[in-house]
Amino acid sequence: MTRRPGPVKRSSSSMSDYDAIIIGAGHNGLTCAAYLARAGLNVKVLEQRGVIGGATVTEEFHPGFRNSVYSYGISLLSPDVIRELELHKHGLEILERPAGTISLLDNDYLLLPRDSQAAKQQIARFSKHDAELIDEFEQRISDVALLLRKTVNITPPNIGGGWKDLLQALKMGNHLRGFDATQQATFAELMSKSLGDYLDMWFEGEALKGVLGLEGVIGNFAEPYQANTAYVLLHHAFGEVNGRNGAWGIARGGMGAVSGAIASYARSHGVDIETDCAVEKILTESGRVSGVVTKNGNKLSAPVVAGNIHPQTLLLKMLDPALLSSDQKRRLNSYRSHSATFRMNVALSELPVFDSLPESSNAVLSGAIEICPSLTYIKNAFNDANSHGWAKQPVISMWIPTTQDDTLAPSGCHVASLFCQHFHKDLPQGQSWDEVKEEVADLIIDTIAKQSSNFKSILLGRQIKSPLDIERDLGMLGGDIFHGALHLDQLASLRPITGLADYRMPAKGLYLCGSGSHPGGGVSAIPGRNASREILSDLKRK
Prior knowledge:
Layout: E1 20-23, H1 27-38, E2 43-46, E3 58-62, E4 65-68, H2 79-84, E5 94-96, E6 101-105, E7 108-112, H3 116-124, H4 128-149, H5 163-176, H6 181-192, H7 195-202, H8 206-217, H9 232-235, E8 240-241, E9 244-245, E10 249-251, H10 256-268, E11 272-274, E12 279-285, E13 288-294, E14 299-301, E15 305-307, H11 311-318, H12 326-333, E16 342-348, H13 362-365, E17 368-371, H14 375-388, E18 390-399, E19 414-423, H15 433-449, H16 455-458, E20 459-465, H17 467-474, E21 510-512, H18 526-541
Parallel strand pairs: 1-2, 1-15, 2-11, 6-17, 15-21
Antiparallel strand pairs: 3-4, 5-10, 6-7, 8-9, 12-13, 13-14, 16-19, 16-20, 17-18, 18-19
Protein backbone atom coordinates (compact mmCIF):
# COMPACT_ATOMS: atom_id res chain seq x y z
CA MET A 1 0.00 0.00 0.00
CA THR A 2 2.66 2.44 -1.06
CA ARG A 3 0.27 4.34 -3.35
CA ARG A 4 -3.02 5.99 -2.56
CA PRO A 5 -5.74 3.39 -3.21
CA GLY A 6 -8.08 3.84 -6.15
CA PRO A 7 -11.74 4.71 -5.74
CA VAL A 8 -14.00 2.32 -3.90
CA LYS A 9 -17.75 1.97 -4.04
CA ARG A 10 -19.32 3.95 -1.23
CA SER A 11 -22.61 3.08 0.36
CA SER A 12 -25.61 5.27 -0.32
CA SER A 13 -25.99 7.86 2.43
CA SER A 14 -29.73 7.15 2.40
CA MET A 15 -29.06 3.54 3.34
CA SER A 16 -26.21 3.82 5.87
CA ASP A 17 -25.00 6.40 8.35
CA TYR A 18 -21.37 5.59 7.49
CA ASP A 19 -19.33 3.58 5.02
CA ALA A 20 -17.36 1.99 7.87
CA ILE A 21 -17.45 1.90 11.65
CA ILE A 22 -14.31 1.13 13.66
CA ILE A 23 -14.71 -0.22 17.19
CA GLY A 24 -11.85 1.00 19.38
CA ALA A 25 -9.63 4.08 19.01
CA GLY A 26 -6.37 2.36 19.84
CA HIS A 27 -3.54 2.95 17.41
CA ASN A 28 -4.58 0.07 15.12
CA GLY A 29 -8.20 1.19 14.95
CA LEU A 30 -7.15 4.74 14.18
CA THR A 31 -4.75 3.45 11.53
CA CYS A 32 -7.47 1.40 9.85
CA ALA A 33 -9.82 4.39 9.93
CA ALA A 34 -7.16 6.69 8.49
CA TYR A 35 -6.48 4.44 5.49
CA LEU A 36 -10.19 3.96 4.78
CA ALA A 37 -10.82 7.70 4.93
CA ARG A 38 -7.77 8.28 2.76
CA ALA A 39 -9.50 6.14 0.13
CA GLY A 40 -12.62 8.30 0.31
CA LEU A 41 -14.83 6.44 2.80
CA ASN A 42 -17.01 8.11 5.43
CA VAL A 43 -15.65 6.58 8.65
CA LYS A 44 -16.80 6.63 12.28
CA VAL A 45 -14.62 5.49 15.20
CA LEU A 46 -16.28 4.54 18.49
CA GLU A 47 -14.18 4.44 21.66
CA GLN A 48 -15.52 3.25 25.01
CA ARG A 49 -13.04 5.28 27.07
CA GLY A 50 -12.98 9.02 27.49
CA VAL A 51 -9.65 9.29 25.66
CA ILE A 52 -8.31 7.91 22.40
CA GLY A 53 -5.17 5.83 22.05
CA GLY A 54 -5.90 2.56 23.85
CA ALA A 55 -2.51 1.41 25.12
CA THR A 56 -0.76 4.31 23.38
CA VAL A 57 -1.76 7.07 25.76
CA THR A 58 0.00 9.67 27.92
CA GLU A 59 -1.44 10.77 31.26
CA GLU A 60 -0.51 12.97 34.19
CA PHE A 61 -0.22 10.45 37.02
CA HIS A 62 1.24 12.78 39.69
CA PRO A 63 0.96 16.57 39.78
CA GLY A 64 3.30 17.89 37.08
CA PHE A 65 4.45 14.40 36.00
CA ARG A 66 3.26 12.72 32.79
CA ASN A 67 4.22 9.45 31.17
CA SER A 68 3.13 6.71 28.81
CA VAL A 69 0.67 4.65 30.83
CA TYR A 70 0.85 1.23 29.14
CA SER A 71 3.09 0.91 26.06
CA TYR A 72 6.23 2.96 26.48
CA GLY A 73 8.72 2.29 23.66
CA ILE A 74 8.86 2.53 19.88
CA SER A 75 10.58 0.08 17.56
CA LEU A 76 7.93 -1.92 15.72
CA LEU A 77 5.97 1.10 14.43
CA SER A 78 5.76 0.58 10.66
CA PRO A 79 7.89 3.00 8.60
CA ASP A 80 5.26 2.66 5.86
CA VAL A 81 2.57 3.91 8.23
CA ILE A 82 4.77 6.76 9.44
CA ARG A 83 5.39 7.83 5.84
CA GLU A 84 1.95 7.21 4.32
CA LEU A 85 0.02 8.85 7.16
CA GLU A 86 2.55 11.70 7.42
CA LEU A 87 2.85 11.20 11.16
CA HIS A 88 5.82 13.52 11.54
CA LYS A 89 3.78 16.32 9.96
CA HIS A 90 1.04 15.56 12.47
CA GLY A 91 3.27 15.97 15.50
CA LEU A 92 5.07 12.67 16.02
CA GLU A 93 8.74 13.03 16.97
CA ILE A 94 10.62 9.82 17.68
CA LEU A 95 13.74 10.10 19.83
CA GLU A 96 16.10 7.20 19.30
CA ARG A 97 17.34 5.70 22.56
CA PRO A 98 21.04 6.70 22.64
CA ALA A 99 22.27 4.20 25.21
CA GLY A 100 22.07 0.43 25.25
CA THR A 101 21.13 -1.79 28.16
CA ILE A 102 22.36 -2.08 31.74
CA SER A 103 21.70 -5.33 33.58
CA LEU A 104 21.93 -4.86 37.34
CA LEU A 105 23.55 -7.76 39.19
CA ASP A 106 24.48 -8.41 42.80
CA ASN A 107 27.26 -5.85 43.44
CA ASP A 108 28.02 -5.73 39.72
CA TYR A 109 26.49 -4.88 36.36
CA LEU A 110 26.62 -5.89 32.72
CA LEU A 111 26.62 -2.94 30.34
CA LEU A 112 25.65 -3.54 26.72
CA PRO A 113 26.28 -0.22 24.95
CA ARG A 114 25.25 0.30 21.36
CA ASP A 115 28.88 0.30 20.22
CA SER A 116 29.71 -3.31 19.31
CA GLN A 117 33.35 -3.22 20.41
CA ALA A 118 32.50 -1.62 23.72
CA ALA A 119 29.77 -4.21 24.30
CA LYS A 120 32.21 -7.07 23.64
CA GLN A 121 34.65 -5.62 26.15
CA GLN A 122 31.91 -5.56 28.77
CA ILE A 123 30.80 -9.12 27.99
CA ALA A 124 34.41 -10.31 28.14
CA ARG A 125 34.51 -9.30 31.83
CA PHE A 126 32.26 -12.32 32.37
CA SER A 127 33.18 -14.59 29.46
CA LYS A 128 35.65 -14.19 26.60
CA HIS A 129 33.86 -17.05 24.87
CA ASP A 130 30.58 -15.08 24.87
CA ALA A 131 32.29 -11.89 23.71
CA GLU A 132 33.60 -13.74 20.66
CA LEU A 133 30.12 -15.02 19.75
CA ILE A 134 27.84 -12.08 20.47
CA ASP A 135 28.23 -10.42 17.04
CA GLU A 136 27.43 -13.65 15.21
CA PHE A 137 24.46 -14.32 17.50
CA GLU A 138 22.96 -10.88 16.91
CA GLN A 139 23.66 -11.00 13.18
CA ARG A 140 21.82 -14.30 12.80
CA ILE A 141 18.81 -13.01 14.71
CA SER A 142 18.85 -9.79 12.69
CA ASP A 143 19.18 -11.55 9.32
CA VAL A 144 16.19 -13.79 9.95
CA ALA A 145 14.15 -10.94 11.45
CA LEU A 146 14.78 -8.71 8.42
CA LEU A 147 13.65 -11.44 6.03
CA LEU A 148 10.58 -12.21 8.12
CA ARG A 149 9.76 -8.52 8.37
CA LYS A 150 8.68 -8.67 4.72
CA THR A 151 5.92 -11.13 5.63
CA VAL A 152 4.23 -8.99 8.28
CA ASN A 153 2.60 -6.82 5.62
CA ILE A 154 1.15 -9.86 3.83
CA THR A 155 -2.31 -11.16 4.66
CA PRO A 156 -1.85 -14.73 5.95
CA PRO A 157 -3.56 -17.49 3.98
CA ASN A 158 -6.43 -19.31 5.59
CA ILE A 159 -5.72 -22.99 6.14
CA GLY A 160 -7.86 -25.03 3.75
CA GLY A 161 -8.88 -21.92 1.81
CA GLY A 162 -9.35 -21.46 -1.90
CA TRP A 163 -7.16 -20.22 -4.71
CA LYS A 164 -6.68 -16.79 -3.14
CA ASP A 165 -5.28 -18.36 0.02
CA LEU A 166 -3.01 -20.56 -2.07
CA LEU A 167 -1.65 -17.47 -3.82
CA GLN A 168 -1.12 -15.79 -0.46
CA ALA A 169 0.75 -18.85 0.81
CA LEU A 170 2.98 -18.78 -2.26
CA LYS A 171 3.56 -15.05 -1.83
CA MET A 172 4.52 -15.48 1.83
CA GLY A 173 6.68 -18.50 1.06
CA ASN A 174 8.44 -16.63 -1.74
CA HIS A 175 9.82 -14.14 0.80
CA LEU A 176 11.29 -17.02 2.79
CA ARG A 177 13.13 -18.36 -0.25
CA GLY A 178 15.79 -15.76 0.48
CA PHE A 179 17.07 -17.77 3.44
CA ASP A 180 20.47 -19.38 2.90
CA ALA A 181 21.37 -22.66 4.66
CA THR A 182 22.57 -20.93 7.85
CA GLN A 183 19.50 -18.71 8.01
CA GLN A 184 17.22 -21.71 7.44
CA ALA A 185 18.85 -23.50 10.35
CA THR A 186 18.57 -20.40 12.57
CA PHE A 187 14.93 -19.99 11.62
CA ALA A 188 14.14 -23.63 12.36
CA GLU A 189 15.87 -23.43 15.75
CA LEU A 190 14.08 -20.23 16.73
CA MET A 191 10.73 -21.74 15.75
CA SER A 192 11.25 -24.98 17.66
CA LYS A 193 13.61 -24.44 20.60
CA SER A 194 12.94 -22.99 23.99
CA LEU A 195 14.44 -19.60 24.76
CA GLY A 196 16.69 -21.15 27.41
CA ASP A 197 17.96 -23.95 25.19
CA TYR A 198 18.69 -21.53 22.37
CA LEU A 199 20.67 -19.17 24.60
CA ASP A 200 22.47 -22.09 26.29
CA MET A 201 23.56 -23.25 22.83
CA TRP A 202 25.41 -19.96 22.33
CA PHE A 203 26.56 -18.61 25.67
CA GLU A 204 27.94 -19.62 29.06
CA GLY A 205 27.58 -16.39 31.08
CA GLU A 206 24.46 -16.26 33.24
CA ALA A 207 24.29 -12.46 33.21
CA LEU A 208 24.27 -12.26 29.42
CA LYS A 209 21.70 -15.03 29.08
CA GLY A 210 19.54 -13.30 31.68
CA VAL A 211 19.38 -9.95 29.91
CA LEU A 212 18.88 -11.55 26.50
CA GLY A 213 16.27 -13.85 27.99
CA LEU A 214 14.26 -10.89 29.23
CA GLU A 215 13.72 -9.87 25.60
CA GLY A 216 12.24 -13.30 24.97
CA VAL A 217 9.67 -13.19 27.75
CA ILE A 218 8.42 -9.59 27.43
CA GLY A 219 4.65 -9.83 27.60
CA ASN A 220 4.82 -13.62 27.51
CA PHE A 221 3.72 -15.70 30.50
CA ALA A 222 6.18 -18.53 30.05
CA GLU A 223 9.27 -19.92 31.69
CA PRO A 224 12.44 -19.76 29.59
CA TYR A 225 12.68 -23.51 28.99
CA GLN A 226 9.14 -23.81 27.64
CA ALA A 227 9.13 -25.14 24.08
CA ASN A 228 8.91 -22.66 21.18
CA THR A 229 9.67 -19.59 23.31
CA ALA A 230 12.83 -18.70 21.36
CA TYR A 231 10.63 -17.21 18.64
CA VAL A 232 9.90 -14.09 20.71
CA LEU A 233 13.56 -13.09 20.25
CA LEU A 234 12.64 -12.50 16.62
CA HIS A 235 9.49 -10.55 17.37
CA HIS A 236 11.49 -7.96 19.27
CA ALA A 237 14.11 -7.68 16.51
CA PHE A 238 11.67 -6.79 13.71
CA GLY A 239 11.68 -3.09 14.35
CA GLU A 240 13.58 0.03 13.45
CA VAL A 241 13.73 3.66 14.54
CA ASN A 242 14.44 6.46 12.07
CA GLY A 243 15.86 3.93 9.60
CA ARG A 244 18.11 2.09 12.08
CA ASN A 245 17.29 -1.63 12.27
CA GLY A 246 16.72 -3.11 15.71
CA ALA A 247 16.80 0.27 17.44
CA TRP A 248 14.39 1.46 20.13
CA GLY A 249 13.13 4.92 20.89
CA ILE A 250 10.48 6.98 22.63
CA ALA A 251 7.87 9.43 21.42
CA ARG A 252 8.37 12.99 22.61
CA GLY A 253 5.47 13.69 24.92
CA GLY A 254 4.85 10.00 25.56
CA MET A 255 3.10 7.31 23.54
CA GLY A 256 -0.04 9.41 23.32
CA ALA A 257 1.85 11.28 20.59
CA VAL A 258 1.61 8.17 18.39
CA SER A 259 -2.16 7.85 18.61
CA GLY A 260 -2.50 11.63 18.52
CA ALA A 261 -0.64 11.88 15.22
CA ILE A 262 -2.63 9.05 13.62
CA ALA A 263 -5.89 10.59 14.85
CA SER A 264 -4.85 13.98 13.50
CA TYR A 265 -4.26 12.51 10.04
CA ALA A 266 -7.54 10.59 10.21
CA ARG A 267 -9.52 13.68 11.21
CA SER A 268 -7.90 15.67 8.41
CA HIS A 269 -9.54 13.16 6.06
CA GLY A 270 -12.94 13.45 7.69
CA VAL A 271 -12.91 10.63 10.25
CA ASP A 272 -15.37 11.22 13.09
CA ILE A 273 -13.98 9.92 16.41
CA GLU A 274 -16.39 9.64 19.32
CA THR A 275 -15.25 8.81 22.86
CA ASP A 276 -17.29 7.57 25.84
CA CYS A 277 -19.24 5.45 23.37
CA ALA A 278 -18.98 1.70 23.94
CA VAL A 279 -20.36 -0.79 21.43
CA GLU A 280 -22.75 -3.39 22.81
CA LYS A 281 -23.69 -5.41 19.75
CA ILE A 282 -22.89 -5.88 16.06
CA LEU A 283 -25.98 -5.79 13.88
CA THR A 284 -26.31 -8.29 11.04
CA GLU A 285 -28.89 -9.09 8.38
CA SER A 286 -28.76 -12.45 6.56
CA GLY A 287 -25.17 -13.01 7.69
CA ARG A 288 -23.97 -9.55 6.65
CA VAL A 289 -23.01 -6.64 8.88
CA SER A 290 -25.46 -3.77 8.94
CA GLY A 291 -24.11 -1.66 11.83
CA VAL A 292 -23.72 -1.55 15.60
CA VAL A 293 -25.71 -0.81 18.74
CA THR A 294 -23.96 1.24 21.43
CA LYS A 295 -24.41 0.67 25.15
CA ASN A 296 -26.59 3.76 25.38
CA GLY A 297 -28.96 2.19 22.84
CA ASN A 298 -28.05 4.16 19.72
CA LYS A 299 -28.01 2.33 16.40
CA LEU A 300 -25.47 3.30 13.76
CA SER A 301 -25.59 1.69 10.33
CA ALA A 302 -22.67 0.76 8.09
CA PRO A 303 -21.90 -2.09 5.66
CA VAL A 304 -18.41 -2.44 7.15
CA VAL A 305 -17.45 -2.84 10.82
CA ALA A 306 -13.85 -3.41 11.95
CA GLY A 307 -12.97 -4.31 15.52
CA ASN A 308 -9.78 -3.07 17.13
CA ILE A 309 -10.68 -5.11 20.18
CA HIS A 310 -9.83 -8.52 21.59
CA PRO A 311 -11.05 -11.23 19.17
CA GLN A 312 -12.96 -13.05 21.91
CA THR A 313 -14.83 -9.85 22.75
CA LEU A 314 -15.64 -9.15 19.10
CA LEU A 315 -16.80 -12.66 18.21
CA LEU A 316 -18.11 -14.17 21.44
CA LYS A 317 -19.72 -11.13 23.06
CA MET A 318 -20.77 -8.76 20.27
CA LEU A 319 -21.61 -11.01 17.32
CA ASP A 320 -24.70 -13.18 16.91
CA PRO A 321 -23.52 -16.63 18.13
CA ALA A 322 -25.55 -18.30 15.36
CA LEU A 323 -22.95 -17.01 12.87
CA LEU A 324 -20.19 -19.08 14.49
CA SER A 325 -19.76 -22.81 13.96
CA SER A 326 -19.30 -25.07 16.95
CA ASP A 327 -15.67 -25.57 15.90
CA GLN A 328 -15.06 -21.81 15.77
CA LYS A 329 -16.62 -21.35 19.21
CA ARG A 330 -14.45 -24.10 20.66
CA ARG A 331 -11.27 -22.61 19.18
CA LEU A 332 -12.15 -19.10 20.25
CA ASN A 333 -12.93 -20.21 23.80
CA SER A 334 -9.50 -21.86 24.01
CA TYR A 335 -7.64 -18.84 22.61
CA ARG A 336 -5.00 -17.98 25.22
CA SER A 337 -4.58 -14.48 26.63
CA HIS A 338 -2.15 -14.09 29.49
CA SER A 339 0.87 -11.82 29.35
CA ALA A 340 1.81 -11.69 33.07
CA THR A 341 2.45 -7.95 33.06
CA PHE A 342 2.42 -5.50 35.98
CA ARG A 343 2.97 -1.94 34.83
CA MET A 344 4.06 1.05 36.96
CA ASN A 345 5.08 4.65 36.45
CA VAL A 346 7.00 6.51 39.14
CA ALA A 347 7.66 10.22 39.71
CA LEU A 348 11.21 10.95 40.93
CA SER A 349 12.73 14.11 42.37
CA GLU A 350 16.08 13.29 40.75
CA LEU A 351 17.84 10.48 38.92
CA PRO A 352 18.21 7.22 40.81
CA VAL A 353 21.71 6.19 41.82
CA PHE A 354 22.43 2.53 41.17
CA ASP A 355 25.04 1.44 43.65
CA SER A 356 26.90 -0.99 41.39
CA LEU A 357 27.32 1.53 38.55
CA PRO A 358 30.31 3.85 38.35
CA GLU A 359 28.01 6.80 37.61
CA SER A 360 24.35 7.72 37.21
CA SER A 361 23.81 10.32 34.49
CA ASN A 362 21.49 11.01 31.60
CA ALA A 363 23.99 9.45 29.21
CA VAL A 364 24.26 6.24 31.23
CA LEU A 365 20.59 5.91 32.18
CA SER A 366 19.00 6.80 28.84
CA GLY A 367 18.84 3.14 27.84
CA ALA A 368 17.07 0.18 29.40
CA ILE A 369 17.87 -0.71 33.01
CA GLU A 370 17.11 -4.35 33.67
CA ILE A 371 16.80 -6.49 36.78
CA CYS A 372 17.01 -9.97 35.30
CA PRO A 373 20.38 -11.48 36.23
CA SER A 374 19.86 -15.02 34.88
CA LEU A 375 17.52 -17.45 33.19
CA THR A 376 17.05 -19.09 36.59
CA TYR A 377 15.77 -15.74 37.91
CA ILE A 378 13.15 -15.67 35.14
CA LYS A 379 12.19 -19.28 35.81
CA ASN A 380 11.78 -18.62 39.53
CA ALA A 381 9.64 -15.57 38.80
CA PHE A 382 7.39 -17.67 36.58
CA ASN A 383 7.12 -20.50 39.12
CA ASP A 384 6.29 -18.04 41.92
CA ALA A 385 3.57 -16.45 39.81
CA ASN A 386 2.13 -19.83 38.90
CA SER A 387 1.86 -20.93 42.53
CA HIS A 388 1.54 -17.68 44.50
CA GLY A 389 0.20 -15.20 41.95
CA TRP A 390 3.26 -13.00 41.61
CA ALA A 391 7.04 -13.21 41.52
CA LYS A 392 8.79 -12.81 44.85
CA GLN A 393 11.73 -11.41 42.88
CA PRO A 394 10.14 -9.79 39.81
CA VAL A 395 11.78 -9.25 36.45
CA ILE A 396 11.92 -5.47 35.92
CA SER A 397 12.69 -3.38 32.87
CA MET A 398 13.04 0.34 33.65
CA TRP A 399 13.16 3.20 31.18
CA ILE A 400 13.66 6.83 32.24
CA PRO A 401 12.29 8.83 29.28
CA THR A 402 13.03 12.19 30.91
CA THR A 403 16.73 11.61 30.23
CA GLN A 404 15.72 12.54 26.65
CA ASP A 405 12.35 14.28 26.97
CA ASP A 406 12.14 17.09 29.53
CA THR A 407 8.48 17.80 28.73
CA LEU A 408 7.27 14.98 31.00
CA ALA A 409 8.36 16.30 34.42
CA PRO A 410 9.29 19.52 36.23
CA SER A 411 12.84 20.77 35.77
CA GLY A 412 15.38 18.48 37.41
CA CYS A 413 12.81 15.77 38.06
CA HIS A 414 12.21 12.50 36.24
CA VAL A 415 9.66 9.83 35.45
CA ALA A 416 10.42 6.13 35.04
CA SER A 417 8.47 3.40 33.28
CA LEU A 418 8.56 0.03 35.05
CA PHE A 419 7.55 -3.03 33.04
CA CYS A 420 7.46 -5.99 35.41
CA GLN A 421 6.97 -9.77 35.22
CA HIS A 422 5.79 -12.43 36.15
CA PHE A 423 2.27 -11.92 37.49
CA HIS A 424 -0.63 -14.32 37.12
CA LYS A 425 -3.92 -12.98 35.84
CA ASP A 426 -5.76 -15.20 38.34
CA LEU A 427 -4.74 -15.11 42.00
CA PRO A 428 -5.08 -18.12 44.33
CA GLN A 429 -7.65 -18.49 47.11
CA GLY A 430 -10.12 -16.09 45.56
CA GLN A 431 -7.91 -13.02 45.97
CA SER A 432 -8.41 -9.98 43.75
CA TRP A 433 -5.67 -7.84 42.27
CA ASP A 434 -7.47 -4.84 43.74
CA GLU A 435 -6.72 -6.24 47.20
CA VAL A 436 -3.01 -6.92 46.70
CA LYS A 437 -1.71 -4.54 44.04
CA GLU A 438 -0.36 -1.99 46.53
CA GLU A 439 1.51 -4.79 48.30
CA VAL A 440 2.94 -5.97 44.99
CA ALA A 441 3.89 -2.42 44.03
CA ASP A 442 5.79 -2.14 47.33
CA LEU A 443 7.62 -5.37 46.44
CA ILE A 444 8.66 -3.92 43.08
CA ILE A 445 9.91 -0.73 44.72
CA ASP A 446 11.83 -2.79 47.30
CA THR A 447 13.40 -4.84 44.50
CA ILE A 448 14.70 -1.68 42.83
CA ALA A 449 15.79 -0.19 46.16
CA LYS A 450 18.13 -3.16 46.69
CA GLN A 451 20.03 -1.82 43.68
CA SER A 452 19.55 1.90 44.35
CA SER A 453 20.22 3.37 47.78
CA ASN A 454 18.38 6.64 47.03
CA PHE A 455 15.37 5.24 45.17
CA LYS A 456 12.84 5.35 48.00
CA SER A 457 13.94 8.80 49.15
CA ILE A 458 13.42 10.34 45.68
CA LEU A 459 10.08 8.61 45.03
CA LEU A 460 7.31 11.22 44.87
CA GLY A 461 4.40 9.26 43.44
CA ARG A 462 3.45 6.15 41.52
CA GLN A 463 0.85 4.82 39.11
CA ILE A 464 -0.06 1.13 39.29
CA LYS A 465 -1.58 -1.04 36.58
CA SER A 466 -2.13 -4.65 37.60
CA PRO A 467 -3.16 -7.34 35.08
CA LEU A 468 -6.75 -6.72 36.16
CA ASP A 469 -6.40 -2.96 35.68
CA ILE A 470 -5.05 -3.52 32.18
CA GLU A 471 -7.97 -5.81 31.36
CA ARG A 472 -10.56 -3.39 32.74
CA ASP A 473 -9.01 -0.25 31.30
CA LEU A 474 -8.32 -1.52 27.80
CA GLY A 475 -10.38 -4.67 27.31
CA MET A 476 -7.16 -6.69 27.03
CA LEU A 477 -8.46 -9.98 28.38
CA GLY A 478 -6.14 -11.59 30.90
CA GLY A 479 -4.15 -8.36 30.94
CA ASP A 480 -2.57 -9.57 27.69
CA ILE A 481 -0.79 -6.65 26.03
CA PHE A 482 -0.73 -8.55 22.73
CA HIS A 483 -4.48 -9.40 22.55
CA GLY A 484 -3.47 -13.06 22.76
CA ALA A 485 -0.28 -14.98 23.48
CA LEU A 486 2.40 -14.82 20.79
CA HIS A 487 2.90 -18.58 20.69
CA LEU A 488 3.42 -20.46 17.45
CA ASP A 489 -0.08 -21.94 17.53
CA GLN A 490 -1.52 -18.41 17.66
CA LEU A 491 0.48 -16.76 14.86
CA ALA A 492 0.04 -16.08 11.13
CA SER A 493 -2.57 -18.47 9.66
CA LEU A 494 -3.49 -19.56 13.20
CA ARG A 495 -4.23 -16.05 14.50
CA PRO A 496 -6.71 -15.66 16.03
CA ILE A 497 -7.93 -19.09 14.88
CA THR A 498 -7.80 -21.13 11.70
CA GLY A 499 -10.10 -19.84 8.99
CA LEU A 500 -10.10 -16.26 10.30
CA ALA A 501 -6.49 -15.28 9.59
CA ASP A 502 -7.21 -12.89 6.69
CA TYR A 503 -8.85 -10.20 8.89
CA ARG A 504 -12.31 -11.27 7.62
CA MET A 505 -14.64 -12.51 10.34
CA PRO A 506 -17.65 -14.86 9.98
CA ALA A 507 -20.18 -12.12 9.13
CA LYS A 508 -19.62 -10.51 5.74
CA GLY A 509 -18.37 -6.96 6.22
CA LEU A 510 -16.94 -7.71 9.68
CA TYR A 511 -13.17 -7.46 10.15
CA LEU A 512 -10.58 -7.74 12.92
CA CYS A 513 -8.02 -4.93 12.77
CA GLY A 514 -6.29 -5.17 16.17
CA SER A 515 -3.38 -7.05 17.71
CA GLY A 516 -5.40 -10.27 17.84
CA SER A 517 -4.78 -10.49 14.10
CA HIS A 518 -1.55 -10.93 12.11
CA PRO A 519 1.24 -10.05 12.88
CA GLY A 520 0.25 -9.71 16.54
CA GLY A 521 0.92 -7.26 19.33
CA GLY A 522 3.23 -4.34 19.83
CA VAL A 523 2.87 -0.77 18.62
CA SER A 524 3.30 -1.51 14.91
CA ALA A 525 0.01 -0.27 13.33
CA ILE A 526 0.44 -3.13 10.84
CA PRO A 527 -2.78 -5.01 11.74
CA GLY A 528 -4.76 -1.82 11.15
CA ARG A 529 -3.01 -1.12 7.86
CA ASN A 530 -3.35 -4.70 6.62
CA ALA A 531 -7.03 -4.91 7.56
CA SER A 532 -7.79 -1.67 5.74
CA ARG A 533 -6.21 -3.11 2.60
CA GLU A 534 -8.48 -6.15 2.72
CA ILE A 535 -11.55 -3.99 3.40
CA LEU A 536 -10.80 -1.78 0.40
CA SER A 537 -10.12 -4.82 -1.76
CA ASP A 538 -13.51 -6.31 -0.86
CA LEU A 539 -15.30 -3.02 -1.53
CA LYS A 540 -13.73 -2.74 -4.96
CA ARG A 541 -14.99 -6.21 -5.87
CA LYS A 542 -18.61 -5.38 -5.02
